[in-house]
Amino acid sequence: MTSDTFAYPCPDCGTTNRVHDEGCDYDYAGPAVIEKAYIDILSQLIPHAAVMDMHDAPPGMSYKMLAQKVSKRLRNVGDPKKKGEWRTIHVDCLHALKDHRRVGEAEEMGGLYLKSPEERVMEIIPTFDPIKTIYETGPVDGCKDYAVYAMVSWCELVDLDWTQTVNFCKEWLTETNAWEELRWGEGSIDQLLRGKKHVHEKGLGWGQQAEEAKNVIERSNRDPRIDAQAKVAGVSKEDYDT
Questions:
Q1: Among 43, 124, 170, 211, which residue's CB has the most CB atoms within a 10 Å radius?
Q2: Has this prediction a pTM greater than 0.85?
Q3: CA 214 to chain centre
Q4: What is residue 46's three-state secondary structure?
């Protein structure tokens, strides 16, 4: 897992360097262009949230207000090269910020708002059963396949991409000591997870697998190895956006 940073990925193909995927809508745009579009958005949301906090008001703003504020700022900058308006790249970068759980949208929050690290991770760490038991205790003999299946499905459910899913599951299998303590037919965690990639790609959901895995885990009397609530509370030290 990485620290709490955001790499300003291309809002289409996800690259963080100059090499875009073939057919990317922004293959013309270097990292500086993309980063500027993100900053155009964040530079309006951050001070707005601070001002609203001082007035004990919801920290968000509407999409229309955000677009207007960005356009107003871009029209008034002194450098002619930086002048402009709210464009498609801003729309797509806003979607990327939402996909990466940096920005949320809720009526009770006043519209678009910056999510706290605690809120971002609370959406990722399983805090309800049956997936909570699987997460906290890890797989046991008799449900290894179902447990991994369910955890990969959970990652897809909370919108982690495949790389993030692999990182999340590696940490889970390591922290619960399941990879070290149990016998696996695969030679590595990566090989194990590749066998479950179709679950993520097809959004299969966990069906009965999670409940059955939970029941086996509870019968095993294996002590939990992770405290999900404590993990959420410790978000300032660990961020699950990769």
A1: 124
A2: no
A3: 25
A4: helix
Calpha distance 139→122 (Å, rounded)? 22
Residue 189 CA to residue 169 CA, distance in Å, equals 9
Which domains does the chain show, CATH number per domain? 31-115 (1.10.10), 122-233 (no CATH)
Note whether 150 and 209 are within 8 A (CB): yes
Per-residue model confidence (pLDDT) at position 236 = 39
In this prediction, residue 69 carries a pLDDT of 96
Query: 3-class DSSP state for residue 173?
Result: helix
Angle, CA 238 vertex, CA 216 and CA 41 arms, to 5°: 120
Report yes or no: 49 and 119 within 8 Å, Cβ to Cβ: no
Residue with tokens 């696996």: 184
**Percent of the chain clearing pLDDT 90 (strictly above):** 61
| 22, amino acid identity | E
Amino acid at 37: A
Exposure b/e, 39-75, CB count within 10 A at least 16 = b: ebbbebbeebbeebeeeeebbbbeeeebbebbbebbe
Q: Please tell me whether residue 30 adopts helix, strand or coil conformation.
A: coil
Residue with tokens 């706290």: 116
Q: What angle do CA 205, 206, 209 make, to 5 degrees?
A: 160
- Cα–Cα distance measured from residue 185 to residue 197, given in angstroms and rounded to the nearest whole number: 17
Q: Which helix (H) or strand (E) covers residue 104, if one does?
A: strand 103-106
Token pair listed for 163: 């790389």
